[in-house]
Amino acid sequence: MFTLKNFEAQIGSAILQRGKKYYDQGKVINLEETDDNVWEADVQGSEIYSVEISINTGNKVSKYECDCPYSDDLCKHVVAVMFALKDEKAETDTKKKGAPVKAAFETLLQKITVKEYQDFIRKYARGNKGFKTEFELYFSEKDDSIDVEKKYAGLILKVISKHSDKGFINYYASSKLANDLYGFCAKANEFIKQNNFNDAIAIAKPMLKASMEAITESDDSNGNLGGLIDDVIGLFAVVADSPEAARALKEQVFFFLKDELDNKIYFDYGDFGYEMLDVFKKLALQLGNTEEFLSFMDAELSKPPNKYSEYHHNFFQTQKIAFLQSTGRINEAEKLVVQSLEIAEVRQGEVDKAIDKKDYRLAKQLINDGIAIAQKSNIRVPLTNGKKNCCVLLF
User: Fold this and answer.
1) Contact 18/79 with Cβ under 8 angstroms?
2) Half-sphere exposure for 357 (CA within 13 Å, toward CB)
3) Distance between CA 252 and CA 248 in Å, rounded?
4) Would the CA dihedral through 214, 217, 221, 222 be positive or negative?
């Protein structure tokens, strides 16, 4: 790992010269320390690119990022900022050798009046919509009229648009996009740690919808956007599991998931729909929304099946059986089981129950029926049930 002192000797000459030229031309702007040892800057290239560099003890460069499309590890924009940082650190060290000097920024914060604060914020917000949105979100708890979810939706769509080229997100951009969107997940997790579940869900809802739209128009062969969506669904699961989350919020999540699950893209682009259904089912049981859940399941099961939807249909049928059983509606569940014995998972469950009761005759009949169904469908099935290797002994 190189440092601000020796990076010039460790970086290839071509990229080093390009970065130095950018620095000499004054293209590094807005250099500032945003956190302990984390520096950010904008670099004016064909567009304005954002660079972030982390500096450890001894001025070691521990991490660097740039949102430009350059595919190699280190770009000229990062190098330009390293030159700027090197000079900034040298200037700071020089000042330290003399009388202590308080940072101008901190000095001004202490000197300006409340009215001067307000006048500056109004003026800055007029020319910077992003700042205005961030400001309103930061202080949203002080004004109930602020639509937090709508604000986050706008920010998320802005990030997605930045990485989209004529509506498509390429392989490289999808990775960058996922990395940027993870910042919103991190924010939602911060809210959850503070038991601020409302704002966490205000992020999760637009994140889920926007991320799913993005993945349908992207090359996500690296799986980063898919992983992000899994994490967003995880936010809903955390709220569903939390006893501290208000019932009204859980109701909101329940009906949001119900509406979203009606969109087939959640099932077409991975297992997202099935993950969401787990949360939806859990909330239905918690909230006593049995009929709402069953009506949704029936609507899904009533859709005309085709060769591509067989797994989907069978999954919903087995889930409905399990739900009826978990809510004590045993008779209804048993009737549905009888109607669903052509589904391997349902039949296997009945075989397991028969074996547990030592009713081997019934178990054998169920297995024979299953073999007949499989032969008719040209499907190969094992003679063991995964639970115990005794089915084969029935023959």
Assistant:
1) yes
2) 10
3) 6
4) negative
**Cβ atoms 317, 301 nearer than 8 A:** yes
Among 210, 209, 212, smallest CA distance to 226 is for 212
- Using an 8 Å Cβ cutoff, are 121 and 109 in contact? no
Which of 253, 328, 262, 270 has the alpha carbon at shortest distance from 295? 262
- Phi-psi region for residue 31, left (φ > 0), alpha (ψ -120 to 50) or beta? beta
Per-residue pLDDT of the chain (395 residues; tens, 9 = 90+): 788 889 998 898 999 999 999 999 999 988 888 777 889 999 988 788 899 999 888 889 989 999 888 877 889 999 999 999 988 887 666 555 554 545 577 788 889 999 999 999 988 888 887 788 888 888 887 888 889 999 999 999 989 998 998 889 999 999 999 999 999 999 999 999 999 999 999 999 999 999 999 999 999 999 999 999 999 999 999 999 999 999 999 999 999 999 999 999 999 888 999 999 999 999 999 999 999 999 999 998 888 776 667 888 888 888 998 899 899 998 998 888 877 777 777 777 777 776 887 767 766 766 666 656 555 655 554 444 444 444 444 44
Paired tokens of 57:
């003890």
- CA distance to 160, 316, 359, 360, per residue, from 364 (Å): 56, 26, 9, 6
Distance CA 302, CA 309 (A): 12
Q: What are the start-end ranges of the H helices in the chain?
A: 7-10, 13-24, 76-97, 104-111, 114-126, 129-138, 148-162, 171-193, 197-215, 224-241, 247-261, 265-268, 272-287, 290-301, 310-326, 330-339, 344-356, 360-376
The one-letter amino acid at 98: G
What letter would DSSP give residue 391?
Answer: G
Partners of residue 28 on adjacent β-strands: 43
Crossing angle between the packed helical segments 224-241 and 247-261, to the nearest 10 degrees: 140
Please provide the size of the chain in residues: 395
Q: Which of 132, 182, 194 is nearest to 156 (CA)?
A: 182
